[in-house]
Structures are given as structure tokens and as C-alpha cells.
Backbone:
């Protein structure tokens, strides 16, 4: 007669198993397994444990072995099972991935789960599972543009240095204009939010004019200097520079980060800057407005203050913008720049390499 492996418990293990064997809130399977191990520790064989607990000898032997191999943690979960045999081979998976990334359907710009399922001879669920496992999302697309500025690296390093290590006794301002902000009024009043229904607004609208917001974001404390006008020529930009000059401390050097809009480089603007040497202008590389931190503030303004707004005239639009900025300045919160110039340059380098490979192919 074969003798089962003996079970020896230390005091801590016995105390834990006894608690489990008497517990009312634990799963029944865990209580049963604790009782099996306790009876095995008392010297009973698997057949005797099976008769006492009304289970099969194989079950008693299984949990005796699991405990001896893995201790109490081995009793708390079942061993992994092999599951159903795969019906989709690696070859089929590779074919779906290759078709998704390299081909397009005959009558569409991108694949859907249904069109891919029909082309690959699989179910829609299988295609969705393969895409999810490999991080493929054919229905999504993101826009990008790589700057062709020959001085991209120098400009990038200069601006990131202002963000990460601003000069002492100076103010760093990210300045730009948000032009063509439309004062849109809806053709009918919207319905309010209520239980079971989101707020509604008509799809059509009335145009009541446009306004331009000039804004300069202080990178240190997050405050915004602003001015609204109906146009965005060099005359209005000069007026905004005068506003900045008036509201900032006279003894501070001002570093302005701006984009390459022609208004910012107008000869009259250059002459005005030459007469005000405390202004130091840093231009972002071409096609790199994302480097200007004020664009992040414009995004918040659009998302939170303008997109769902209803404006009967331009004056109401300007008042709304002013109220939003005043509220922001009451409790300003600066945006924290964390990306290093070297990391950005490496990413741009990889993007250019990929783009060159696409062109050569």
C-alpha cells in the first residue's frame, strides 16, 4: 500500500488553516482545502480524508501535494488550465496584422472589424481580439508635421532651456494670438441636462462676428496677460506689446516665446523691439507651435469656455473670454514642462528616419 507524503505544520500555518477551516466568509473551496491539509497533518491518509470529508481520494491527494509544494498560498487559487485548443494559427494572425498595416480595402481608406473579418475569413470577434492584442486601431489617425527649419535644434534647445532653467530676474512669457474666434449663436435654445439625457444644442448656428485674443502666459506662475481686438495685424500686436510693457515690472527682462507669424516679424515691430531692449524674442521653429506653452492655455479656453458657449454678439464673446481669464488669474496654475531637448530631438530624428524610409519605398 502506497503511503502519502507526510504534512508537517508549524504553529503559524496550523493557526491560519484552523481559522480558514472555521471561517464563514471565505469561499467554500478554500475552507475545504484547509480541512484537507489539517487532516493530513493529523496523520490521515488520502482515502481516510476522502471518506471523512465526502470527497474523492484524488482530490485529497491533489491538495496535499499542492500544499507541500507551495504552502498556504497554493491553496488560495487553482492551477492554470490549458484551456481550449487554438483554432487561429500564428499564420492567420500574421496575415491579419500584415493586411491591417500594409494593405487597404478596395472601397475604403481603412479596415473595419467586419471588412477585415470578411477578407481574412475570420469572425469579427477574432479580428477585434487580434487588433487589441497587438495595439492596432485602424479607425484612429493622428496628424503630425516634422519641422523643416534648418535651425530647429538651436531654437528648440533655447526655448526648452527657458522652460526648464529660466534666467534670474527675468520673466518668461509665451505669447500668441488666437484669431477668428467666432461669436456663435444657436438657432434654437438648447435643452438642459437631466436624468437619462445629456444636454442638447442645435447643430446649426448664427455667426455674429469674430474676435482675436492676444495672450501672454507667464511660465512661472501661470498668469495670463490678455487683450481682445477685432483684427490681428502688426498694429494690434504692437498694441499688445505695449500692454505687456506697462503691466510687467519695469526692472525685469522679458523673454517672449512666439511663433513665426509674419506679424511678429514686421519691420515696425522690429524697430519697436529695438527701442525696448528688455524684450528678448525667441521664435519657435517652423511648424512647431506645440512648443509654445500658451497653446495649452488656448486649448483649455476653447474646451471649457467657448465650445458650448452661445454668444449673441462679439461683445458678449469678449466679456466671456475676459471673465474666463480673470477667473484663471485668481487661482493660476502653471503648466510644467518636463521634456528635455535631447529627448525631443531623438524623437524627431526617429520620425524623420521613418518618413525617409516611406519616401524611398
Residues:
Amino acid at each position: 500500500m502506497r503511503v502519502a507524503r507526510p504534512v508537517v505544520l508549524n504553529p503559524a500555518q496550523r493557526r491560519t488553516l484552523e481559522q480558514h477551516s472555521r471561517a464563514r466568509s471565505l469561499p467554500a473551496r478554500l475552507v475545504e482545502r484547509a480541512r484537507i491539509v489539517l487532516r493530513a497533518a493529523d496523520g490521515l491518509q488520502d482515502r481516510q480524508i476522502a471518506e471523512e470529508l465526502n470527497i474523492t481520494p484524488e482530490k485529497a491527494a491533489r491538495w496535499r501535494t499542492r500544499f507541500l509544494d507551495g504552502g498556504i498560498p497554493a491553496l488560495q487559487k487553482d492551477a492554470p488550465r490549458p484551456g481550449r485548443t487554438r483554432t487561429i494559427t500564428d499564420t492567420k494572425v500574421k496575415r491579419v496584422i500584415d493586411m491591417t498595416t500594409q494593405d487597404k480595402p478596395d472601397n475604403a481608406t481603412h479596415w473595419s472589424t467586419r471588412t477585415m473579418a470578411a477578407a481574412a475569413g475570420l469572425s469579427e470577434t477574432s479580428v477585434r481580439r487580434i487588433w487589441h492584442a497587438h495595439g492596432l486601431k485602424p479607425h484612429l489617425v493622428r496628424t503630425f508635421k516634422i519641422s523643416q527649419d534648418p535651425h530647429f535644434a538651436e531654437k528648440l534647445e533655447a526655448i526648452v532651456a527657458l522652460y526648464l532653467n529660466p534666467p534670474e530676474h527675468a520673466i518668461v512669457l509665451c505669447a500668441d494670438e488666437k484669431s477668428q474666434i467666432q461669436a456663435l449663436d444657436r438657432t434654437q435654445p438648447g435643452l438642459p441636462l437631466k436624468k437619462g439625457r445629456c444636454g442638447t444644442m442645435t447643430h446649426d448656428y448664427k455667426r455674429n462676428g469674430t474676435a482675436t485674443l492676444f495672450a501672454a502666459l507667464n511660465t512661472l506662475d501661470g498668469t495670463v496677460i490678455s487683450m481682445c481686438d477685432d483684427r490681428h495685424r502688426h498694429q494690434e500686436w504692437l498694441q499688445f506689446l505695449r500692454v505687456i510693457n506697462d503691466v510687467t515690472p519695469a526692472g525685469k527682462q522679458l523673454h517672449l516665446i512666439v511663433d513665426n507669424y509674419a506679424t511678429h516679424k514686421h519691420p515696425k515691430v522690429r524697430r519697436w523691439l529695438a527701442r525696448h531692449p528688455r524684450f528678448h524674442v525667441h521664435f519657435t521653429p517652423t511648424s512647431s507651435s506645440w512648443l509654445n506653452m500658451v497653446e495649452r492655455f488656448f486649448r483649455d479656453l476653447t474646451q471649457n469656455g467657448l465650445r458650448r458657449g452661445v454668444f449673441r454678439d462679439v461683445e458678449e464673446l469678449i466679456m466671456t473670454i475676459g471673465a474666463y481669464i480673470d477667473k484663471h488669474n485668481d487661482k493660476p496654475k502653471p503648466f510644467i514642462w518636463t521634456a528635455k531637448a535631447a529627448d525631443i530631438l531623438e524623437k524627431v530624428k526617429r520620425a524623420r528616419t521613418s518618413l525617409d524610409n516611406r519616401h524611398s519605398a
In short: Residues 341-360 form the longest helix (20 residues).
